[in-house]
Amino acid sequence: MSNLTQQNSENIQVLEIRNYLLKPNLTNKFRDYFHSKFVTPMNELGGYTLGEFKIDNTNDRFVWFRGFTDMKTRLEFLNDFYVNSAIWKEYGKGANEMMINSDNVYLLRPLKEDINSEQLKTDKTFTVVDFYICNNTLEKVIELFETTYIPFLKNLKIEDITLWVSEMAENDFPRLPVFQDKNLLVSITHYKDENEFYAKQKEIDSMPAYLKNSMQELITIQNQLVLLNLDS
User: Fold this and answer.
1) N or C, which end of the chain is more exposed by having fewer CB within 10 Å?
2) 232 band by pLDDT with thresholds 50, 70 and 90
3) Looking only at Cα atoms, what is the longest distance across the chain?
């Protein structure tokens, strides 16, 4: 089950996708340390851990989602946790010693409306994050997704999906850098297991030619992050 206290169901307006590069072969050790030392205190302060992941066949990456109800509570949390909390003062050094880089972070907001935390927390095994960089075409890509691509996915019974764009408000805690790309669209999709993911991927690859051509014309770069859920 999720790390967020079960009785809480928060509307998430701000999401961080945090992708840490660790020292070799430390993914499992780091995750155990992170989960035991930080998750409960962060949730209590309003920085909600909404997923902990590893990358398949990779032992030096730890990816996690952290959500906030808005940018104001994000700033309050970051100060409360990283500046003022006894937890970080006691255990932060141990986490940093296992990391090479922690600056690969995307700061996002929901495309249309708040996303309930229950839509991100999952017991499914596979979570896929697609990054679509759309140079000067973002609005057209969003329209294509809403009118054609998302209905196509739903017709394939791919429905556990949320859409995000960059939160462009100032990152008012510069101690933790983030990517803020005005040309970015992000989708987060959950799959039951490996078999479902690869089966659905084949169906997606066989999309109608007109849809594939439209996406290729409008999307400059697409990158995909396939994650294994450590909470499942």
Assistant:
1) N
2) confident
3) 56
SS3 call for 33: helix
Q: What is the mean pLDDT of residues 191-197?
A: 96
- The total number of structural domains that make up the chain: 1
Average pLDDT in the chain: 95
User: Is 4 a domain residue?
Assistant: no
Interatomic CA distance for residues 157 and 165, integer angstroms: 24
Question: Which residue type, as a one-letter code, is found at position 67?
Answer: G
Q: Is residue 2 part of a domain?
A: no
Q: Rounded distance, CA 215 to CA 162, Å?
A: 18
Within-domain flag for 5: no
CATH number for the domain that contains residue 187: 3.30.70.100
130: in domain: yes
Give the rounded distance of the alpha carbon of 197 from its chain centre: 17
Q: Is the pLDDT of residue 73 over 50?
A: yes
Give the percent of the chain with pLDDT over 70: 97
What pLDDT, on the 0 to 100 scale, is given for residue 6? Answer: 42
CA dihedral 190, 161, 224, 95 (to 10 degrees): -60
Segments forming the whole domain that contains residue 143: 11-229
Instruction: Look at residues 58, 50, 169, 40 and name the one whose alpha carbon lies nearest to residue 108.
Output: 169
